[in-house]
Amino acid sequence: MTSSAGAEGQQAWPELSRTTLRDLERASGDLAASSVSEMERRLPWFRRMPADQRASVLLLIQNGVAGFVSWLDDPRQAIRLTAEAFRSAPKDISRWVSLRQTVELVRIALELFEQQLPRLAADDAERARLTEGVLRYGREIAFSAATSYAAAAEARGAWDARLEALVVDGIVRGDAEESLLSRAAALGWDPAAEATVLVGNPPSDDPPAVVYEVRSRAARSARPVLLSVQGSRLVVVLGGETDDGDVLGKIAEAFGDGAVVAGPTVASLAEAHRSASDALSGLRAVVGWPTAPRPVRSLDLLPERALAGDPEAEWQLVDRIARPLEEASGSLLETVDTFLEVGGVLETCARKLFVHPNTVRYRLRRVTELTGRNAHDARDALVLRIALSVGRLAKARGLW
């Protein structure tokens, strides 16, 4: 019934004379050329386009005018069939013309059609029909272009997601190939930007929701991110400095329940595999520290990582704590060893060492300056104790 009514409405239009239709066909080339000339005059970015791309736009307009004339000749055919040139064109030009620019091009072409086509009409009835026809055809073209660009955007989004997953997977596996950096650059990542890898549980089983959560928080912090859900874990590569720690806390809110571990911040994406390795090692070991902060740095999980058998954590404990204390003068190693053995009681430590309590205080301050660990703090005391044990075991095996 609706279809029949629509056909009656179309047939109620006055028929265009064969002379007018022939005039329209002859004028199609001039209309297209005039449209391109007007675009060049009004749009600076269009003037800067290569000649072959402007020629593609000219061909597009010519096809559009031909389709318009064909539809006017037979108003019973669906407009969508005559708009196919515009429906398929964005798939070809969307790589070098944005949707906003396409709208500008279509607007200029339609304005020119509205001005010039009615002049070809034989009488007022034909003029009214041409004017209304331009409006209806222009509306269909606009919807076709928007639909095509939306489809192209979805396809690009799916491709970008796959490319991003490949980049993150390469970082996790330790690939430092040039292809990884070029893929990241294709996603808009600055290869020279600092990078920090965070790992934890995804907030949901819906990948688009996960992506939205992470990207929205990163955008509010004005930071680039790469992310991928790998089974039951979410891996995020965060760009930029993380000295203040606030940005890590904001990104950690996008993770699901459970621990979130951040690897060390490295100088560039080419070194991000080190951050990923430490972060994943920390995620496996964080169960040994139930009260760990969220997020927790992998560097703060060195004791648990060493106990879990991570040789890199063992070496860092030796390099950062055991070796400096071993090589330091002033009985620092003996003092911190004794202080930990007596449970952190300053006076008892001083008596066992036969020194004044102030001497113990001075030596412990030196230990803090040297290692970054305060023996008075319970957590730091644990790190110091395990580091010294790991150091002695490594030395016994002849590793240093």
From TrEMBL:
<dbReference type="GO" id="GO:0003677">
    <property type="term" value="F:DNA binding"/>
</dbReference>
<dbReference type="Pfam" id="PF17853">
    <property type="entry name" value="GGDEF_2"/>
</dbReference>
<dbReference type="InterPro" id="IPR042070">
    <property type="entry name" value="PucR_C-HTH_sf"/>
</dbReference>
<dbReference type="InterPro" id="IPR041522">
    <property type="entry name" value="CdaR_GGDEF"/>
</dbReference>
<feature type="domain" description="PucR C-terminal helix-turn-helix">
    <location>
        <begin position="332"/>
        <end position="389"/>
    </location>
</feature>
<dbReference type="Pfam" id="PF13556">
    <property type="entry name" value="HTH_30"/>
</dbReference>
<keyword id="KW-0238">DNA-binding</keyword>
<feature type="domain" description="CdaR GGDEF-like">
    <location>
        <begin position="174"/>
        <end position="285"/>
    </location>
</feature>
<comment type="similarity">
    <text>Belongs to the CdaR family.</text>
</comment>
<dbReference type="InterPro" id="IPR025736">
    <property type="entry name" value="PucR_C-HTH_dom"/>
</dbReference>
<dbReference type="InterPro" id="IPR051448">
    <property type="entry name" value="CdaR-like_regulators"/>
</dbReference>
<protein>
    <submittedName>
        <fullName>DNA-binding PucR family transcriptional regulator</fullName>
    </submittedName>
</protein>
